[in-house]
Amino acid sequence: MKTYTNTGSKDTRSGFGDGLTELGKTNENVVALCADLIGSLKMDEFKANHPERFFQVGIAEANMISLAAGMTIGGKIPFTGTFANFSTGRVYDQIRQSVAYSDKNVKICASHAGLTLGEDGATHQILEDIGLMKMLPGMTVINTCDYNQTKAATIAIAEHHGPVYLRFGRPKVANFTEANQKFEIGKALHLVDGTDVTIVATGHLVWEALEAAKVLNEKGISAEVINIHTIKPLDDEAIIKSVTKTGCIVTAEEHNFLGGLGESVARVLAINKPTPQEFVATNDTFGESGTPEQLMEKYGLNSNAIVKAVETVIKRK
Amino acid sequence: MSNTQQLKDLTTQVRRDILRMVHKVNSGHPGGSLGCAEFFVSLYSDILDRKEGFDMDGIGEDLFFLSNGHISPVYYSVLARSGYFPVKELSTFRLINSRLQGHPTTHDNLPGIRIASGSLGQGMSVALGAAQTKKLNNDSHLIYSLHGDGELQEGQNWEAIMYAAGNKVDNIISTIDLNGQQIDGSTDTVLPMGSIKGKFEAFGWTVVEINEGNDIDAILKGMAEAKSKTGKGKPVCVLLKTVMGNGVDFMMHTHAWHGKAPNDEQLANGLVQNPETLGDY
């Protein structure tokens, strides 16, 4: 089976920061806004290179989102940066009316998503943001898996006209996708070929899915692993094609099972090809303080949890 | 530059449009619309430096943003009568498949509208964003915006008001419609806001007051004064004192007509007080 190598763990937010730095040099219409989290979002370099195109709005996320909507009028492409919780739940109505309904070319870039934010606890660990964003008509929703992919996605979304939610995280995680890859919005990435089960993962769970596939392989189970970086629009075809071969599926995400990737996949399959499915996701709960590893273990979001889910779903075939 | 009589005639016609639009669908917001009729007419006939036609980016022209989107009847009437779309389209207000939605939207590509509004408190931020893009584009034209006084109860306004002064956004003129009314009663009974002038000044804005906000000459004079204060490192606020329901006697000085349409008899009464000047749609 095909295996992937961690070329050195890095945080996905640094992929965002480095992508933004590159965009600053190549696209003069790109502007950036931040709500008092420049260091956390790795926006320092863009700010230093282009102070005239960088807007520190202070701790005022609602103002930031609506400012960004206004900045598009006249041709700018605003990238907003704050934590995922403050990028979505706190400003849902601003995104809904001024960005999504008004079809404004705003890129909402959200770090520290999910449990892996760690010790800050549940107030900051949003597990509902994918659902909030994917429900908005016209919104593109992307959750990248590593540094390289996050950098590529950041660069790619500047070329896409329309509102985008780009979700990434805080901790250093395995960096295993190609450097300088071309990022295609809405296109699933086939990572490992398999015949017994399909594992569809997004964000930090993609690496866990690869680790799970190795364990499963040793147990004689051939798992197909697909990296779904774009949750909306979803690559229906890739999912249907894979389960046609494998006959069962596990979805894996750092998000509540309500409203996440798993539900989007379930809808596609219910309509096109009803298939047994298990969900690796949080179970309608808030998070808590702890290290990322402890939390992912406790809430069942690591490779062990994926292996278990696979063993369950295969029995349901 | 239009003469004042032409603007008065247009205002009378706009009042008729407002009354007929909300009456037809038995919904909509006539009170605030009537109170701002003179302001909208002055803005689109005289104050804004506008280009022919409509382009979303609006480079090289002044832009206007309506934050209190519920006064869409006056906005639509003045946009239509300023040539953005056919006047006869006013008859589709709030009907199924219309571009004239209950609250303004870009969703159906209605010329003249650059952002959806209706959920209150967002328009100041949007206008400031557009103002900053004007600066980035080295475009010396101005951004104008309108907000309700009750709308200032939304906290996002104060984020924006603080931001504007802190960042010296001095190419914006934000007008507050001080009619003293909101849905549940007078602003003083619903949530007393103290001195709005004092608050804007404390936040670092230049404030211009127009005490006769339903008098076209006073509006033109006050807005010219406001314009003269732009470009000096501070955002400019205009406090426009208006009478809700102005020009229709039984709708004046009350919140009762905030979001209520006149019946047949009331419509006839309102129209008699505002005889046709430029032709009904």
UniProtKB/TrEMBL annotation, chain A:
InterPro entries: PDH/Transketolase (IPR051157), THDP-binding (IPR029061), Transketo_C/PFOR_II (IPR009014), Transketolase-like_Pyr-bd (IPR005475), Transketolase_C (IPR033248)
Pfam families: Transket_pyr (PF02779), Transketolase_C (PF02780)
Residue ranges occupied by any Transketolase-like pyrimidine-binding domain in the UniProt entry: 10-175
Entry's family note: Belongs to the transketolase family.
Keywords noted in UniProt: Thiamine pyrophosphate
Protein name (Swiss-Prot/TrEMBL): Transketolase
Species in which this protein is naturally found: Bizionia arctica
SMART domains: Transket_pyr (SM00861)
Cofactor: thiamine diphosphate
UniProtKB/TrEMBL annotation, chain B:
Entries under Gene3D superfamilies matching the protein: 3.40.50.970
Cofactor or coenzyme needed: thiamine diphosphate
Domain Transketolase N-terminal: 14-268
Family matches, as SUPFAM superfamilies: Thiamin diphosphate-binding fold (THDP-binding)
Claim: Cell inner membrane is one of the keywords in the record: no
Highest taxon listed in the record's lineage: Bacteria
The keyword Cytoplasm is annotated on this UniProt entry: no
Keyword list, A-Z: Thiamine pyrophosphate
Family: Belongs to the transketolase family.
PANTHER family listed in its UniProt record: TRANSKETOLASE N-TERMINAL SECTION-RELATED (PTHR47514:SF1)
Protein name according to UniProt: Transketolase
Organism: Bizionia arctica
Lineage: Bacteria, Pseudomonadati, Bacteroidota, Flavobacteriia, Flavobacteriales
Gene name of the encoded protein: tktA
